[in-house]
Amino acid sequence: MNSLKTRRQFSYRNLIYKGLIFIATISIIVYFLPNGRKFSYQFDINKPWKYGLLQASFDFPIYKNDLQVQKEQDSILAEYQPYFQVDKEVEKKIVAKLRDDYSKTLRHLMPGTDYVRYVERMLKLLYENGIIAGNDLKRLEEDSIVAIQLVDKNIATSRFVAQLYTGKEAYEYLLNADTVHYKKKILQQCNLNNYITSNLIYDEEKSETAQKDLLSNISWANGFVLNGQKIIDRGEIVDKHTYNILESLRKEWEKRSETAQEKRLTLAGQLLYVGIFLFCFMTYLELFRSDYYERRGTLTLLFALIVFFPVVASVIVEQNLSSIYLVPFAMVPIIVRVFLDSRTAFITHITIILLCSITLRFPHEFILLQVVAGMMSIYSLRELSQRSQLLRTALIVFISYALLYFAFELIHEDDLTKLNTRMYIYFMINGILLLFAYPLLFLLEKTFGFTSDVTLVELSNINNSLLREMSEVAPGTFQHSLQMANLAAAAAHKIGGKSQLVRTGALYHDIGKMMNPAFFTENQSGVNPHKSLNHEQSAQVIISHITDGLKLAEKHNLPKVIKDFISTHHGKGLTKYFYISYKNEHPDEEVDPDKFRYPGPNPFTKEQAILMMADSVEAASRSLPEYTEESISTLVEKIIDTQVSEGYFKECPITFKDIALIKALFKEKLKTMYHTRISYPELKK
Fold this sequence. Notes:
Number of helices: 27
Strand order of the largest sheet: 5-4-3-6
Structural class: mainly alpha
């Protein structure tokens, strides 16, 4: 009963977790989507109109272009004078402070009252003229404003900016105004900066009102189009005048679609559209990759990509920043393929492309181009281990874009001189941007805890410090690992596993033997230290190479996938030599097998299962009295069948067909490794 209740709680928690991911992803994507109905025509100046007859369906003005409007604004704003309030209280407080300081401290610095009267008179003059804050003056200079309006008791007076004082200028004026009668050195001792502060306060409300009044005199239109009036017909060239009319129609169209009802309908449609495709993606994960929900790094990466690219596409289209074809969408399947698998890479790419297409006016061309580019990138980059592979993929993606778009143009254009060369430049830039996937993969690897093939290749270099140390400290183990790496990598390649991963795992699986190399047969040279230990102690020494290996892996920052090979290559098996020896010596004693058992766990990936088989077969093959086809075949069958029967592979996705293929490959490889060499004849004299 408790078990059923626990399962239900876990099921509800899992459902809530997925629901939160679903809602959060939809919310972010829809928030950035353009929220207006799109003007469903594409046009460029000096290009033919691709659609039928277009007539105005309502009256609308012909707006001036942005350059004309900007020129008129600049001309009118040359007369603009922002408003500043004169704060009289500042002068009163400063003068009062000066008098108070004089009575307390300044009397000893200033001989007589002439100095303080001089300072007071100069301060009143400065504050009457106006002291402006440095940041306000900087803003006026940046806007090229030469005069302002000073407001004192609701009376505004125009004042040139050059006549105003900053704090620094006011201080220098105080010191240098009358150096004949008043000594500069005495004034400097009084710390006059304490009595200088800005008394002009920017009046934002009045300034904005004045600016709006000036701009209201600008006419935003230079013509008018009446309802039913012809605008353009198919095949006609879009000249500057027609282009302005079409742009004006687009602006009016979008303005009319900004009603509350239209916005609600648009929002509902966007939520439904994004929700459908996101639901399909999560259904795929549930059916085929449910383990990804338990791997937070994997799940975060997938949904980060699904959110990032639609948001980027929305911003580019909404702000009209550049062409959407500059965005390297083919980077998505490359990233997912390198870290996860081809099927998920394709599904993720399709989901992102369909979500991005909602931002475009004519999405079918975009969808077809991106789908083909994504498929080519997946096909051309199965394993990324060299920079040149990414360069080749970028070139293939560029060619795919260019050929498919050229096919579109041949279908729709009857004149090759009208080809849109700008699109091919976009495709070329897209291919160049795709090369940045290489450094990005490194950042994503460290951020989300993945291990790429590039990292695995670097780790499998036998000249790195840890492997070089193993070759010196435990040469027999090192040679065993090399043989195993070749054997296991070939098996992984045979059944469609990750060959580079299992090769690297094989090189590091026995690094724990470096702590006690002499206790392992392959490193012994006539002396066997196990003779001085009992069977239980010997078993613990052998078992400890798992825990010692994990400690070394932690010390050298090896990835988790490599640590998993260390912990699973013996699974929860027994150290059978010592276990059987102990039982033979104590036939009447009840033996606890856990004292002779490896800590495990059993293999839980296809690659770990391959490594376990290769480890047992390669090690056992060294003890064969003779290497014949029959002895090798019998050995391979016996060892792997025993592992299967003892349940070591119950928790990993390996099939009987895979195991049969692995057996056949091991037999062929071992026969090649241990074949008998011919004897060379001696030369007769």
